[in-house]
Design goal:
The complex is a heterodimer of chains A (about 70) and B (about 260). Chain A is built from 2 helices and no strands. By secondary structure, chain A is mainly alpha-helical. In chain B, helix 3 runs parallel beside helix 8, helix 4 packs antiparallel against helix 8 and helix 5 packs antiparallel against helix 6. The chains are: A mainly alpha (about 70), B mainly alpha (about 260). The interface between A and B is large, with 33 and 40 residues.
Chain lengths: ~70, ~260
């Protein structure tokens, strides 16, 4: 361990703006990308999976009416 | 082979894997789903190890002090920005030549992640340049060619988005991606070919690394973490693209119905 304390670690020897600005942007972009892809998958499943199911339900209801 | 009872394809008979089987979106879709958690764990472990070595173990630099620590993020991002472009152009080209849909989808899945790493290389570079060179940005060969790489990625994404028919979009994107490949060696060798403010390669094939072993290990672990992350992001996006494009097929309908 090279740091004396946590505040020492966060100060980054006076370069906190540059070092933390890099770390936060890298971590934010990577986490943000994964989160957006999970949302995209969710919306695909909702849009196309749900449509189909409600369609099947309607079809089922029609069959019942016919019977 | 006149033996009609033998129905195995040749590749399976010889004990090898029939790679063409995985060229179909339907077959690769579940494989990608199984690969994602493996690469996610690898990415997490490698990035955590790289971060620990880079920000807790590696000693402070005598000239650049702690500002140099940006190297642990910057080099990995810059490597991935170029590497992803080559892989993207490879898949796009393969899709163009062999007319395999999955290859083209793979190229489209890689582009946004490549653009993200290019942006991150520029961003961390600016934050590193300011304290060490005194400028956020200079129009020198390395920085300018990396900026052109970002525009190539954006151009590829925008071109594909502007064409409604997916296969035509694939072909147009592939031509752009292949023409743009010329930029990658320009970026890589720019520090040798031109006088530039940017320092030379951190690692090259002719000399021993000019940096301490701890720093080198931290940098490599971080880069490997980014590499594993790229698999996660690209495969997640690939599965979205496959579902969007194949949603009219029976297997995709069945999957959507079962999963939603």
């Amino acid at each position: 361990m090279i740091w004396d304390s946590w505040s020492d670690f966060f100060a980054m020897g006076g370069y906190a703006l540059y070092v933390w600005g890099s770390i936060i942007m890298v971590a934010g972009c990577m986490l943000g990308e994964v989160a957006s892809l999970m949302l995209r998958r969710k919306s695909i499943l909702q849009q196309f999976g749900g449509q189909r199911r409600s369609g099947a339900k309607r079809q089922g209801a029609r069959d019942e009416n016919a019977a | 082979m006149s033996n009609t009872g033998n129905t195995l394809p040749p590749a399976q008979q010889s004990g090898g894997i029939n790679w063409f089987k995985y060229a179909s979106p339907q077959t690769f879709f579940p494989v990608a789903g199984k690969l994602i958690p493996l690469f996610a764990i690898a990415a997490l472990l490698l990035c955590a190890a790289g971060f620990y070595i880079g920000f807790f173990v590696a000693p402070t630099d005598s000239q650049q002090h702690d500002a140099y620590r940006i190297i642990f993020l910057h080099v990995g991002a810059a490597w991935m920005s170029m590497f992803i472009y080559l892989v993207m152009a490879f898949w796009a080209g393969l899709g163009l030549i062999l007319n395999t849909r999955l290859s083209s989808m793979m190229a489209s899945a890689l582009a946004p992640t490549g653009a993200m790493f290019t942006f991150l290389a520029l961003w961390t570079g600016a934050l590193w340049g300011r304290p060490t060179w005194g400028a956020w940005w200079v129009w020198d060969a390395r920085l300018t060619s990396e900026l052109i790489l970002l525009f190539l990625y954006i151009g590829f994404i925008a071109l594909q988005a502007s064409i409604d028919e997916p296969r035509r979009a694939d072909r147009a994107g592939a031509v752009l991606a292949l023409v743009g490949v010329v930029n990658v060696p320009i970026i890589y060798f720019s520090v040798q070919w031109w006088n530039t403010l940017h320092q030379g390669s951190s690692i090259n094939f002719s000399n021993a690394p000019k940096m301490a072993m701890t720093m080198l290990i931290g940098m490599l672990l971080m880069a490997l973490g980014f590499w594993a992350y790229t698999f996660v992001a690209a495969l997640l996006r690939l599965r979205c693209i496959v579902l969007e494009r194949e949603r009219h097929t029976d297997w995709a309908k069945e999957y959507l119905e079962k999963t939603a």
